Amino acid sequence: MDELVALAKRRGFIFQSSDIYGGLQGVYDYGPLGVELKNNLKAAWWRAMVYERDDVEGLDAAILTNPLTLRYSGHEATFTDPLVDCRQCKSRWRADHLEKPQCPSCGSTDLTDPRPFNLMFKTQVGPVEDSANFAYLRPETAQAIFTNFKNVADSTSPKLPFGIAQIGKAFRNEITPRNFIFRVREFEQMELEFFVEPGEDETWHDTWVAERLKWWGEQGVNENNLELYHVPADELAHYSKATVDVMYRFPHGLEELEGIANRTDFDLGSHTKNQADLNISARVEPNADSNARLALQNTESKEWRVPYVIEPSAGVDRGVLAVMNEAYNVETLENGSERTVMSFKPHLSPIKVAVLPLKRNHEGIVDKARGIKQDLQKLGLGRILYEDTGNIGKGYRRHDEVGTPLCVTVDFQTIEEDDTVTVRDRDSMDQTRIAVADLADYVKEQIAG
Ligand code: GAP
């Protein structure tokens, strides 16, 4: 973990937020390469969930959330962690994270009894400071999918099964944020709510567990580092009938990367008015505040049913940490030297190709290299970087360390002899001479597959 954290800072992936003022605990910023990596991971999820399917629509809902949404979702009452205080040093801990009833900071056993601490952040809405004028920062992106169920259904007329996908920020006032970007207070989720006929939920749950394992594999996560955890009944979230966690061997241990829950008809049922005739199976509170009926009518039987929902919910930041951990390698070369290489899958690499002029002050070479950069950029594969530091060997090493799959070097042979360039492969370190005329096809094949 320490090596990853150091590389993340040194190379501009991830920084402590508000670093110059001592940081803000549990909050991180993504730097020039981190934002590319994170966007690439999100784009891969969106492609798999929305573009490659015809039964999922996208959504980008607001972060500020009406408190009623989070009252009826059950979060106001139950979204808590058990908090204990150390009476000696005044530090605060999550009781279920303590190995024994002892303060990890000062060693005292003089701890308070655990009490529930709600993890939701509140913020004032509008200019009047008044306890009634507040909103929550959403603790999961899911709720806005449920509250928009009717809007999406009315505008797209879907048939079951169908899903609504969303990527966005979520906020939790974690008692003890820790392990770099693993447990933070501000993070992103990639969530799919996949609505199904009641009775077909268990089969769909299994299907989504298999789909998600396959997807993590495609992001370069070794299956030997993934395990499924069937959450026991006494650990299930208040809305869940069954949850399977995808656990990943993070540098600090085996922990949850993604949760795949069967939320039944709990959420749509909870947010629905006039629930009485809807045959809702989950235990929901009567809802006098909603004006919507979050149900679908069967066109033949005319019967109204609240669908069940299967929810694969992945953390973007935990995903970034997992793919960085998988990609990180320190190799010993034949000459005994070491190289650090981030072997990202090309679609995730922050920089796809670095174009390096052999001489940074040679007009002909520089112009040619800049032209190649512009042409490759137009392929739409992601970021192509022109970089004229002048030392090609160092350039290769630096790009190994940030995971750039290909480096293209423009030299005298390019401009004076045969219009070819050297293409250097990150993984094999092979250098091949390729005609500039063939470069776009070659790069496309290597990067897009
Ligand atoms: N909508 C369901 C839901 O929010 P969750 O298991 O609480 O379920 C889903 O969260 C995923 O969000 C987790 O598997 C994890 O990847 C990510 N996540 C949750 N809390 C997090 C935190 N404090 N920091 C980073 N990621 C977090």
Low-confidence spans: none
Termini separation: 31 Å
Note the total helix count.
Answer: 13
Largest sheet descriptor: 7 strands, mixed
Q: Find the count of extended strands (DSSP E, 2+ residues).
A: 24
Describe this structure in words.
This protein is of the alpha+beta class. It is 30% helix and 29% strand. It folds into two domains: 250 residues, 2-Layer Sandwich (BirA Bifunctional Protein, domain 2); 98 residues, Rossmann fold (3-Layer(aba) Sandwich). The protein has a seven-stranded mixed beta sheet, sandwiched between helices. Strand 5 and strand 6 form a beta hairpin.
Q: Which terms summarize this structure?
A:
alpha+beta; BirA Bifunctional Protein, domain 2; Rossmann fold; 2 domains; seven-stranded mixed beta sheet; 13 helices; 29% strand; binds glycyl-adenosine-5'-phosphate
Question: Can you describe this structure in just a few lines?
Answer:
The chain has 449 residues and is an alpha+beta fold. The protein is built from 13 helices and 24 strands.
Write the layout of secondary structure elements.
Layout: H1 2-10, E1 14-16, E2 28-30, H2 32-51, E3 56-59, E4 64-65, H3 67-72, H4 75-78, E5 80-85, E6 92-94, E7 115-118, E8 122-124, E9 134-137, H5 142-147, H6 149-156, E10 162-171, E11 186-196, H7 201-218, E12 226-230, E13 242-250, E14 253-264, H8 266-270, E15 296-297, E16 304-305, E17 308-315, H9 316-327, E18 328-332, E19 338-342, E20 351-357, H10 363-377, E21 383-386, H11 392-402, E22 406-410, H12 412-418, E23 420-425, E24 431-435, H13 436-448
Parallel strand pairs: 3-10, 20-21, 20-22
Antiparallel strand pairs: 1-2, 4-9, 5-6, 5-7, 8-9, 10-11, 11-17, 12-13, 13-14, 14-17, 15-16, 18-19, 22-23, 23-24
Helix pairs in contact: 2-9
Glycyl-adenosine-5'-phosphate binds at residues 140, 142, 172, 174, 183-184, 187, 189, 191, 256-259, 311, 313-315, 317-318.
